[in-house]
Design a protein that fits this description.
This protein is of the alpha+beta class and 461 residues long. 37% of the residues lie in helices and 26% in strands. Strands 13, 14, 15, 16, 17, 20, 21 and 22 form an eight-stranded mixed sheet that branches. The longest helix is centred in the middle third of the chain and has 29 residues. It binds zinc ion.
């Protein structure tokens, strides 16, 4: 059986808070910044070289496979010193601010172009130059002087001209005590300050999470199966799809945009609470997810339709990103996670329906549960491999699922008046199909299996 070895890992924590501010100089700065940023993007864009890339044959597991199936044009972003120097000179021509502001603009322009490039190569963005639509200015640490005693940030605008922001006596002051300040983002009415800290976590548990459209399905031997309901997230989407459609059909643009913002806020709120809940319920844990980017890139055509659909409707990237901000996370290769038998390792050709059936060893179980076991195991195996231990051939697959599937932990995010959302964790019998099919009598939830887990919950809720 694979068990995580207790090791200390460092979790970098980032929390961003905003401080309201009113200052005419800010609007002027942002106006200049946004123009300069678009200018920088235009210049970089005009100097992109488009190169052809041809299909490449790669040997993978004894088979030859094509990495890129078609002739594609790859954008090469200019990064040489001469180009950067010219870019900087061009932007300096019309710069009333400190020279470091130009560097801040250049860096932001590159990061915008880079993220467009990544999306473009994945087929997620068209060949269209990025346009800056929001008013903001991203600062650089070289423009900031932080006084941790006074809890004040001094931002240089021009030589001898400063902007002061303080986080003293804010509601979040105590939350960021001892944390360091990162690069601030300036908006017309507020300044967003990211605070950073690192936390030592002694890893005692590894949970494998299968990402499905209406749920996150997890597995950890000391807990059993975990089912996180994501339906509220879907209903937010459905409700606002309808509202937006109505607003659009009536040509009410402002209303439409209001719904877009509301939807985004509600989704964000849900994801924040979900992540906080995972952190609270499962301390000392590494959360393992499938690397869904890889899924898009490697096996676009081979990925089953249903699996692709889950990416489109549920904001997995945002969920993964947020969870990784508050807890330890890891990602594994998603291929075959739902087609591999968690008991004997046999890979079935096609996997349809909710029940995974292994023709070799006869295991039958819910496919999401099977996938969560596989995801967890894949992470632990990779970790061992990385430690350059002799690779174990025919690694014994876990034979725990039959035992631990007698009970399942159900958790969810539920609105509860004004108070922060409360999680309702409860152990449930699984829906029964596996139990029946396996010929197992339904068993009472075995409380003794997870004693310390229960206590933690009582203490925290
Ligand atoms: Zn099997």
């Amino acid at each position: 059986m694979l068990r995580p070895k207790e090791v200390c890992q460092i979790l970098e924590l980032v929390r961003a808070y905003s401080v309201p501010i009113r200052d005419d100089r800010i609007s002027e700065l942002i106006t200049w910044y946004v123009e300069a940023l678009q200018n920088a993007i235009d210049i970089i864009w005009d100097n992109i070289e488009w190169k052809y890339s041809f299909p490449e044959l790669v040997r993978r597991g004894g088979k030859l496979t094509t990495v890129i199936g078609l002739k594609v044009r790859i954008p090469i972003i200019p990064k040489d010193r001469a180009f950067k120097k010219r870019l900087r000179e061009e932007l300096m021509k019309d710069n009333p601010y400190a020279a470091h502001w130009v560097d801040a603009v250049i860096r932001t322009a590159y990061s915008i172009i880079e993220s467009w490039r990544k999306k473009y190569l994945r087929g997620r963005a068209r060949k269209v130059k990025p346009r800056i639509r929001r008013r903001f200015a991203r600062c650089k640490t070289t423009l900031m002087k932080i006084d941790y005693e006074a809890k004040t940030i001094r931002i240089t605008l021009k030589q001898g001209e400063y902007l002061y922001v303080s986080w003293r006596s804010t509601w979040f002051e105590h939350r960021v005590r001892g944390w360091t300040v990162g690069e601030v983002i300036i908006f017309d009415d507020r300044i967003v300050i990211p605070f950073k800290s690192s936390e030592e976590i002694y890893v005692r548990r590894v949970i494998g999470w299968d990402s499905n459209e209406p749920s996150l399905d997890g597995y950890e031997p000391s807990i059993g199966f975990i089912h996180v309901d994501l339906k509220p997230l879907q209903s937010i989407k459905i409700v606002y799809e309808r509202k937006k459609a109505i607003a659009q059909s009536r040509g009410k643009r402002e209303l439409y945009e209001k719904y877009v913002r509301r939807e985004r806020n509600r989704e964000k709120d849900f994801i924040n609470k979900l992540s906080a809940g995972l952190r609270l319920l499962f301390p000392n844990t590494v959360h393992v997810f499938e690397d869904l980017d890889k899924e898009d890139m490697v096996s676009r055509k081979r990925v089953e339709r249903k699996r692709r659909k889950r990416n489109a409707r549920t904001p997995w990237k945002r969920i993964h990103r947020r969870v990784s901000e508050v807890a330890l996370t890891a990602y594994v290769d998603p291929s075959n996670t739902s087609r591999e038998c968690p008991r004997c390792g046999y890979v079935v050709e096609t996997q349809e329906g909710q029940i995974f059936k292994c023709p070799r060893c006869g295991l039958k179980m819910n496919r999401h549960k099977a996938a969560s076991i596989n995801i967890r195991r894949r992470y632990l195996e990779e970790k061992r491999r990385r430690k350059r231990r002799a690779r174990m051939r025919g690694f014994p697959h876990s034979n725990e699922p039959e035992v631990s599937m007698m009970v399942e932990l159900w958790v969810g995010v539920t609105p509860s008046g004004r108070s922060p959302v409360i999680w309702i964790p409860m152990k449930r019998d699984p829906e029964g199909d596996e139990a029946r099919e396996e010929g197992l009598a339904k068993t009472k939830p075995n409380e003794t299996r997870t004693p310390h887990y229960r206590i933690e919950l009582d203490r925290k809720l």
